[in-house]
Predict the structure.
Amino acid sequence: MRDGALVAFPTETVYGLGGDARDDRAVARIFAAKGRPSFNPLIVHVADLATARIYVTFPPAAERLAAAFWPGPLTLVLPLRPESGLSPLVSAGLPTAAIRVPAHPVAQALLRAFGGPVAAPSANPSGKISPTRADHVLAGLAGRIAAVVDGGACAVGLESTIIGFDPAPTLLRPGGIPAEVIEDFLGQPLLLPQPDATRPNAPGQLDSHYAPAARLSLNATCGQPGTIWIGFGPACIGADLTLSPAADLVEAAANLFHLLREADRRTGPNGHILVAPIPEKGLGRAINDRLRRAAAPRA
Ligand code: TXA
Ligand code: MG
């Protein structure tokens, strides 16, 4: 990574595709390896809050969230310091940067050994399903990256929750920490982003995303011949695969991306995947966000 190479590594959410966030060439290689539109900015990973302060400034609400939830699956979009030294490609020219302190011990060890800020989007080709195991990374990016550090399956299984502060705490992407947990902690509701044609698409807000090769239909309460039905909870008798037999949203989040890949493998590119309804609360909001994008019409 010190030579500008790309190394995929595990975090508690998903595997990231890491490169030196100060090195224009390394960051450009991340965009190229993923086939990612360069207007979509990347998350900067650092080992701790003290290191984050080198690059961005913290309004009071961000200060409180960082103290409470870092290290962990929370990303904060904050004003860049003028002399941050980050490559402008990381933030796609925006005056803000998305920054997070991952909790995974391998990510922590890598960040400390590297000793600098690591730009890392999810380690998958742009628009495809995020990787929660090292073999998922290789299935999408082998030959385009220098290495993947194998840390086993990711415990959370969904990307970090992204919060912005312009002008008040705003839920930019639902993720590994439920929005309700953050709202309870702050004692105020989170705003939702207002569509603004003058700004680039923020947080995975391109409609089709996390997409399997097969067609995907949501809210399926029964199976159909010739399809793969992914169930949730004890009512889904006869499901081909299940996100959680006991209707546990934490377990469902951890299984989601792996099971979408498995269903895709079983049904083939012209196949059809059905997914049972998931309650729109807690981690269910982030699960449904990913499922809706996976089911969205492809560009
Ligand atoms: O859990 C995660 O967050 C994983 C792991 C690897 O840390 N990373 C991840 O990165 O999901 P990525 O690049 O797939 O998603 C980053 C999201 C993008 O949707 C991007 O639009 C948004 O963060 N983002 C980055 N910088 C931003 C900024 N300055 N303002 C608004 N959104 C930003
Ligand atoms: Mg991603």
Notes: The two ends are 33 Å apart (CA to CA). The chain is about 30% helix and 15% strand. Residues 215-295 form a domain with the Rossmann fold fold (CATH 3.40.50.11030).
